[in-house]
Amino acid sequence: MLSRDTFKGINDNQITRLKIGKKIEILVRDLVNKLLIKGSNTKVINSDEICDDFKNIKKALFLRHDRIGDVLVSIPFFKNFREHFPKVEIDVLLSDKNSGTSKVLRNYSNKIHILPKDLIRIYYLIKELNRSKYDIIIDMFDTVSTRSNLLLQFIKSNYKLGFEKPNKSLYTHIIPMPDKSQIHIVERVLNLLTPFGKSYDKTQIRLEYPLEEKITEKAYLLLGEKVKEYRLGIILSGSSTAKFWGIHNISQFIRLFNKKFFNFEIIVFGTEKHSKMINELPKVDCLKVAPYTNSLDEYAAMLSHCDYLITPDTSAVHFASAFSIPCLVMYSIPVNSGFLPWYPYNSKYTAVITNELSIQFICAEEVLEKFFELYESTGK
Per-residue pLDDT tens for 110-161? Predict the structure, then answer.
């Protein structure tokens, strides 16, 4: 781990703002949650127990209104649930942030709803959902979500199922929280099958993201012809400031990588907000910038044309798993956090972890060394 004296990408004022912003966010969230959560009788379903209440459900609503990665890690659950209950009417609630995944979810659901941002539109959505008369609502969050609390409070349903956590009084039934320090998020979500008397074969679980042939062909044209034996995709940033490696680090890595690997071209993936920073990248041979796109399918298809990925973004991690692309992931994880990172599931990867507030404390030399280990282990 780097010391702060040697770090060039982030200063003490930025670190202080990150800490203050996080504390305010937590205080507001906790206040809202306290207002919503009230005492009630909630039944605990043990890990080896089948719940008789759920035997005759005909209509279910699943809460998955968070980010893209959260949907991707839930696909194995939806696939298994649909296979076990082909006649149950399945509705899924997404957010504007992950609505692009609705295409793949339509394979396993009947209707997709999108949660609005403003309270007035949320009110009308709740009225619409209440007309559906669900037998059960299944909250797929394994953390406390303020919006989930609001929905669980006001959407009517015979049963409400979730994990055992501080908002457990909002459910009629809960299952024990799987050990977050040991059990992968994919398997934690799959545990929601157990009250229905269904299990899964861990060796058979794979992430998936089917793409139409016309999309993969378009992505090939967008990236241009492959000019080297291998193609390395570098994702600039994740969903937060803490998941941005910094142009200084990325530029240094590209220079070092270009000297060591002569059989690679590099594709940098960013968004329009990164355009000025991308212009600061070194002008080296075989470096391309992926075209910006608002289409999740096009983005995923471009990733699928890469042979390796380097990413701080967990949605790209799960796309890598779905497409079996060897992946190097950078994580910022506080000491004693008690959480298992969202590693690629059942696919080849390596990870570089810092205990600092941002991955900008990870040096380019360490990433290059880890990537070389990954490259050697894949046997490509």
Answer: 999 999 988 899 999 999 999 999 999 999 999 988 889 989 999 999 999 9
- What distance in Å separates the CA atoms of residue 14 and residue 21, rounded to the nearest whole number? 11
Give yes or no for residue 199 having a pLDDT over 90: no
Domain contains 29:
no
* CB neighbourhood size of 217 (10 A): 12
Distance CA 115, CA 126 (A): 9
User: Domain check: are 190 and 239 in the same one?
Assistant: no
Whole-number Å distance between alpha carbons of 375 and 262? 13
- In whole angstroms, how far apart are CA 279 and each of 8, 248, 268? 19, 12, 11
Q: Shortest CA distance to 345 belongs to which of 142, 73, 98? A: 73
Same domain, 217 and 237: yes
DSSP letter string, 256-287: HHHHH-SSEEEEEE--GGGHHHHTTS---TTE
Give the tokens for residue 341: 């990172």
Does residue 252 share a domain with residue 156?
Answer: no
Treating both helix axes as pointing N-terminal to C-terminal, what angle do 296-304 and 314-322 enclose, rounded to 10 degrees?
60
**Strand intervals (E) in 9-50:** 43-44
250-261 core/surface letters (b: 16 or more CB in 10 A; e: else): bbbbbebbbeeb
Q: Is the model's pLDDT at 18 over the cut of 60?
A: no
Residues 359 and 15: their CA atoms lie apart, in Å, by 12
For residue 195, the enclosing domain spans: 35-204
Alpha helices in 132-212 (DSSP H): 146-154, 185-190
User: How far is residue 94's CA from residue 151's CA, in Å, rounded to a whole number?
Assistant: 12
Say yes or no: 235 and 362 in one domain. Answer: yes
| Residue 15 belongs to some domain of the structure | no
**CA-to-CA distance for 56 and 58, rounded, in angstroms?**
6
5: in domain? no
Is 272 contained in some domain?
yes
- Count H helices and E strands in the chain, helices first: 13, 13
Same domain, 133 and 229: no
Same structural domain for residues 137 and 183? yes
User: Which of 204, 225, 245 finishes a domain?
Assistant: 204
